[in-house]
From TrEMBL:
Its cofactor is heme. It comes from Salix dunnii. Keywords: Heme, Iron, Membrane, Metal-binding, Monooxygenase, Oxidoreductase, Transmembrane, Transmembrane helix. Heme binds at residue 447. The keyword Glycosyltransferase does not apply. This is Cytochrome P450. Belongs to the cytochrome P450 family. It comes from the Eukaryota.
């Protein structure tokens, strides 16, 4: 009798357990459904408003950033608020200085942004605020400011140009298909090789002549792309639910991150095993100050993300502009001939610093086509911007370098023209306030890799324009950008490469 009673009790408990489990699941799904129905109503209303606002932009403008530029240009304070997106957007330099410097503490990246990139970047410098950010900032500042690491970066880029980029372009110029090549793909491979060697001491060899497929590069690309799609989602709950159930794009993102993490962990383990004190790469330098390998991985992955697509984007639009302005190319060549010896193939670091016109060309290119077209912060407390715009606590606040490069109030009536001379005074380069030109951010968060990035662009520019003529397959077509964290051209940049014939 007793065993049967015990079995009965066990059965009742099991039944209760299953019922409780299914009740919990049902409650959760009901809550999600109600939330989605409520959100759907809100979303539909937002869509109606958004469609009303956006109905004309795709017909009038090639890119949504051009539409934002139009709105900002026609706003009295160069500030607008998109209510359906909860986003205050500004192209006012006074507001930019206020956000990035004066009231820096009130405008962090915020938990919303950190959640979006958290799985990929973890606690890396570009995804954190407060003490974690400050610690990494100080460490990176000390390392990147040293002349030894700048020389190391210069050597890496120069070697990649000499041994891979130029041979690849020479091969394309001699090919039977007319020398057509996708420069955006070339520059993505080029920058990935460079940043991996600089950050990890690892050479993925993406720019080898065979243009091999790298599992690490592919996984990194996918993780970056899918993380960016999270940022574009109208309803953040959707990707969070997909992540919870490990389905769809969130499953793909998780798998891509695992590949990147495994390789990063393997590199870190090998460096600790073999010793890192004599290595010059960023990882080896950071190992002395960071003992947590997971944290170390996050730091270095963040630098790869920042240094890869931004450089590829900058170089792609740079050569698009040069191909459409042959007189600028001629002046770059003339200046290089004045500074470099006639039999000299590559410029030294010191010679590059002497080329003021080339520096102006690079800055003018970045003015019109910044790799990061806009950047957002989140207000910690209610605030009022210098132009009188009220900002509610928790509001997303965005400054827009792409639009700012097209403002007559900053650059004059010829702001839409590619005119490097605007940066020169009596042949000498004259910088402008970074709050009018926040391509590398400004204030406390100004990009630590700014100088190295500019040098890298100039190394590539000189090497290519002195040896090749570059013609764009469709020069009349204005750039059309994909949506994402960085401004990449839709469809790439098809170009015809021809070796120059120099008449002595």
């Amino acid at each position: 009798m007793l065993p049967s009673l015990m079995e009965s009790k066990d059965s009742e408990q099991a039944t209760f357990g299953y019922s409780f489990f299914f009740l919990t699941i049902s409650f959760f799904l009901t809550f999600v459904l109600l939330y989605l129905l409520r959100s759907k109503f809100w979303y539909c209303n937002c869509e109606i408003c958004a469609n009303y606002l956006l109905s004309g932009w795709s017909r009038e403008f090639k890119n949504i950033c051009d539409w934002y530029t139009h709105l900002l240009r026609n706003s009295p304070g160069q500030t607008i608020h998109i209510h359906v997106l909860g986003n205050t957007i500004t192209a006012n330099p006074d507001n930019v200085e206020y956000i990035l410097k004066t009231k820096f503490e009130n405008y962090p990246k915020g938990r919303h942004f950190s959640a979006i990139l958290g799985d990929f970047l973890g606690k890396g410098i570009f995804n954190v605020d407060g003490d974690l950010w400050l610690f990494q900032r100080k460490m990176a500042s000390l390392e990147l400011a040293s002349m030894s690491i700048r020389n190391y970066a210069f050597e890496i880029v120069s070697t990649e140009v000499k041994c891979r980029l130029l041979p690849l372009l020479t091969s394309a110029a001699k090919s039977i298909d007319g020398g057509l090549i996708d420069l955006q793909d070339v520059f993505r491979r080029f920058s990935f090789d460079n940043i991996c060697k600089f950050s990890f001491g690892l050479d993925p060899g993406c720019l080898e002549s065979s243009l091999p497929i790298s599992v690490f590069a592919e996984s990194f690309d996918l993780a970056s792309k899918l993380s960016a799609e999270r940022a574009m989602a109208t309803l953040p709950l959707v990707w969070k639910i997909k992540r919870f159930f490990n389905m769809g794009t969130e499953k793909n993102l998780k798998e891509a991150i695992e590949v990147v993490s495994l390789l990063a962990d393997e590199v870190i383990m090998q460096k600790r095993k073999l010793g890192f004190s004599t290595n010059q790469d960023l990882l080896s330098r950071f190992m002395a100050g960071i003992t947590d390998d997971r944290y170390l991985r996050d730091v270095v992955i963040s630098f790869i993300l920042a240094g890869r697509d931004t450089m590829a984007s900058a170089l792609t639009t740079f050569f698009w502009l040069l191909a459409n302005h042959p007189k600028v190319v001629s002046r770059v060549r003339e200046e290089s001939n004045q500074v470099m010896a006639s039999n000299q193939e590559f410029a030294s670091y010191e010679q590059i610093r002497e080329m003021h016109y080339l520096h102006a060309v690079v800055n003018e290119s970045l003015r019109l086509y910044p790799p990061v077209q806009f950047d957002s912060k989140f207000a910690m407390e209610d605030d009022v911007l210098p132009d009188g715009t009220f900002v509610r606590k928790g509001t997303r606040v965005t400054y827009h370098p792409y639009a700012m490069g097209r403002m007559e109030g900053i650059w004059g009536i010829d702001c839409m023209e590619f005119r490097p001379e605007r940066w020169l005074e009596n042949g000498t380069f004259c910088p402008i306030s970074p709050f009018k030109y926040p391509v590398f951010q400004a204030g406390i968060r100004v990009c630590l890799g700014k100088e190295m990035s500019l040098v890298e662009m100039k190394i590539v520019a000189l090497a290519v324009v002195r040896k090749f003529d570059v013609k764009i397959a469709a020069p009349e077509a204005a750039p059309r950008f994909n949506s994402g964290l960085t401004a990449m051209l839709s469809g790439g940049l098809q170009a015809e490469i021809r070796e120059r014939v120099i008449v002595e």
